Amino acid sequence: MQQDNVAIEVKDLRKEFKVSSSGKGFLGKLQALFHRSNKVITAVNDIDFKIRRGEFVGYVGENGAGKSTTIKMLTGILVPTSGTANVNGIVPYKDRKKNAAKIGVVFGQRTQLWWDLPVRESFDLLRVIFRVSGSDFDRQMAKLDEALGLKPLLEMPVRKLSLGQRMRCDIAASLIHNPPVLFLDEPTIGLDVLAKQSVRNFLSEINRTEGTTIILTTHDMNDIEQLCKRLIILEEGMIIFDGETELLKQKFVHEKVIEVEFYEDDCVMQGIPGVTVVREQGCKKWLTFDSDSSGIGEVIGTIASQYKIKDISVKEPSVESIIRNIYDNRIKLSTPWNKSFTK
Amino acid sequence: MKPELFFKFASISFQKQVTYRFDCFVGIVNGFLYVFIFTSLWKALYSQFDTTVHNGFTLTAITTYAVLVMAVRISFTMDDSIIYRKVMDGSIAMELIRPTSFFFMNLAENVGHSLFHIMARTFPIVIISLLLFDISIPFEPVRLLAFLFSFFAGYILISMLNFAAGLLAFWFVEIFPFMLFKYALFTFFSGGIVPIDFFPEFLKPLVNFLPFQYMLYFPTVILTGRVPMAEVPSIIISQLMWILIMGIICSLMWSAGRKKLVIQGG
């Protein structure tokens, strides 16, 4: 049943919320006193996935796609409407406390530290909560301090920390008990470029050295591109993609972009079949073509044989642009795709 | 929950109270005002009659009751909107990701809160009252011990009542009306205003059916000496039974409520 190398297993997981809506205006509100229409919203719609130990998975989707709801079910905060979830062999919503002892959680827009206490005391309290022995705690703190630069912050009350400082402390707090599974819900929200990079470096390091399984929710595609080998994309509560980040690029990038600069005397370009000009800037042009129907060499060959090229380069679309296209429905993901992958 | 952790949570909650010094000062005045109003009322009432004993209470006994019931009530001061606030701002999520019991964490917070009120309000009010009013408290060590036990049992009961009431926030967006209702029921049926002995006959079956009298009335009358020592064990057993019943209610509500819980603010 439960394989040893599986950290998280989710089957037909579903969460519905009842939203009662009252009518507009005074009369509508008055009517709502007697009769209220309840609407059921499905935040997470029968999703399946399996995450192996040591994986670093990006869990992305638009606002309201159900990312946080999934994380909250896996951390034992919310109870699913139906379906099952299993984290480290524990059912999180049944054995909330047991599960909590073996996971680390960071919610970017909240803190698990005590607002009025100095950071050090918060950490000490978490040490007692998670039953970490004194020597383990010291060792872990030394490691976290080295990676996240906590020392100057320890004596400060949490409410006086800047967002970036607080996030570093919150990430450290989630790792005090060295959990095998780490859930990060937008941990880089509101951080500056440097702070983001140091957080990323640290996450990638613990994933590599400790083998920590990490599930990362983010809107920053640089996070995904740098950290997550695997990507799960959620839309309206359903998984529309689950696979390697590289695979996403290969599978869904049917269009490639060529950036060409021509010599001045040969600036005017006639149409080439299958190639469209998307942008022009003097003698610099951006061309796209369908990489399924014509090979890149073919297209470049055609251009080179007809015009004098000063400079040419082929651009890979970024994960961000791919995902933007998915959100915009410009790339249609066929449904059989995600089902076949999870099986 | 480990005792060490319980005391840590309680001490944080205690320290939080210390920051509200002005609140505390107003609380002392307010508490003493209540004591003064009630003792004056009883004095005025008793002066209207020729008989000196009413429902088994002499004027000294009823004054003692009025002071001590208020002292116990102030000692039981806890923040009953705490769960509601945690649900409303969604911070309950951050507590559910800890391997600790939500009930005991809540209890620890209450204990810290109450400890502060016992030190800062109960003691001053009792001392002032001892000097100003005609009060008699039997100082028997066994009775004092029985009172302490009954006091703790009452404390756990009221903590459970507040916990259960607070859990309503899992179902309803606004629970203030429920809290008012709970407050009214508690204040009256716990003997917080008038001792149960003064209640009309038709109310007594209802009083016995409700847990409220085990929260304030019985701990208080054990201390004042109104209850013979022989009856104390059965009172404490009843308190423990109510703790069991309330405990079952709380845990049923907790497991049902968790399915309803929605985390506000993402």
Describe it:
The complex is a heterodimer of chains A (343) and B (266). Chain A has 343 residues and is α/β, with parallel strands linked by helices. Chain A contains twelve helices and 13 strands. Chain A has helices at 25-34, 67-74, 96-101, 119-129, 134-148, 163-174, 193-209, 221-227, 245-252, 296-306, 319-327, 335-342; strands at residues 6-21, 37-52, 56-61, 82-87, 103-107, 181-185, 213-217, 230-235, 238-244, 255-262, 275-281, 284-290, 309-315. In chain A, strand 6 (181-185), helix 7 and strand 7 form a beta-alpha-beta unit. The two termini of chain A are 15 Å apart. Chain B is built from eleven helices and no strands. Chain B has helices at 3-18, 21-47, 59-75, 82-88, 92-96, 102-132, 141-167, 176-189, 204-209, 217-224, 232-260. Chain B is an all-alpha fold and 266 residues long. Helix content of chain B is 70%, strand content 0%. Chain B has one domain (3-260).
Short structural description:
With 343 residues, chain A is an alpha/beta fold.
Would you spell out the secondary-structure blueprint of this structure?
The complex is a heterodimer of chains A (343) and B (266).
Chain A: E1 6-21, H1 25-34, E2 37-52, E3 56-61, H2 67-74, E4 82-87, H3 96-101, E5 103-107, H4 119-129, H5 134-148, H6 163-174, E6 181-185, H7 193-209, E7 213-217, H8 221-227, E8 230-235, E9 238-244, H9 245-252, E10 255-262, E11 275-281, E12 284-290, H10 296-306, E13 309-315, H11 319-327, H12 335-342
Parallel strand pairs in A: 3-7, 3-8, 5-6, 6-7
Antiparallel strand pairs in A: 1-2, 1-4, 8-9, 10-12, 10-13, 11-12
Chain B: H1 3-18, H2 21-47, H3 59-75, H4 82-88, H5 92-96, H6 102-132, H7 141-167, H8 176-189, H9 204-209, H10 217-224, H11 232-260
Helix pairs in contact in B: 1-6, 2-3, 2-6, 3-6, 3-10, 6-7, 7-10, 7-11
